[in-house]
Amino acid sequence: MSAAMKDCISISSRLMQQIEQYCIAHLPYEACGLLLGTEAKPQTEMPLFVRRFVGIPNTAANPRRHFVMDPSVFIPYLFVPNPSHESIIGIFHSHPSAPPVPSVEDLQTSWIDVPSHWIVSIQNADQPEWQAYRYEKLHPNESGSLTRFKPLRLITTT
Ligand SMILES: [Zn+2]
């Protein structure tokens, strides 16, 4: 797979609108959930492809500033056999009053191995801002930073 394709992820604009509506409906709290779809296919140069999203209740103690996905709701998606071969290819959460940049807490995620991490900023609800990232765990260094994040390029389809 070309390096460029590895840094891409595909999603339909309609699905993005549905996720934006979900996030706006949960204001003033952060909304979160899973993105299900198909893995990248190196042999055909197909990038990660998001097919649908599943909203997961946010059980954080302070849901205005953090998100914790309710395990009783997301765990079945990890284990239930899936006839359409969908896998969890991303997680998303909203930033009700901040730009779509990972916070320190976001980078301490236990979802590090998920191939994409999406932030929907709805600080301007009329004009949501999206950014998807790939997170990579680094060895501890002098700055104490353990996670590096790299923006992914969105390929939107209609
Ligand atoms: Zn965040």
TrEMBL record:
GO terms for molecular function: metalloexopeptidase activity; zinc ion binding. Pfam families: Prok-JAB (PF14464). The keyword Acyltransferase does not apply. InterPro entries: JAB_dom_prok, MPN, VirAsm_ModProt. SUPFAM superfamilies: JAB1/MPN domain (SSF102712). GO terms for biological process: proteolysis. Keywords: Hydrolase, Metal-binding, Metalloprotease, Protease, Zinc. It comes from the Bacteria. Residues 9-139 form the MPN domain. The keyword Membrane does not apply. This is MPN domain-containing protein. It comes from Paenibacillus rigui.
